């Protein structure tokens, strides 16, 4: 069984006109956790799309971009890692709609946010 996604209700927008996309199971997120990766142009609109995941600020920036710009579950699964997402959740600067959509779907993220 593959990963599925939920397109959140209209009230959960990643940005104007685009609903946030959320995976149903954080275990489906199996993206890279270290090294240098290059995001596709569709997700990151700049000439140098390489990101060093070993640098905390760069890794967090990648997570923010992917969570905001992804339109398909395979993009989430390819670039995000479930345990890493849980660990950095409160360090991410996300649109309100993205944060609420993910916290509504995943109790662990909601609990982390409430504990902060």
UniProtKB/TrEMBL annotation:
<protein>
    <submittedName>
        <fullName>Uncharacterized protein</fullName>
    </submittedName>
</protein>
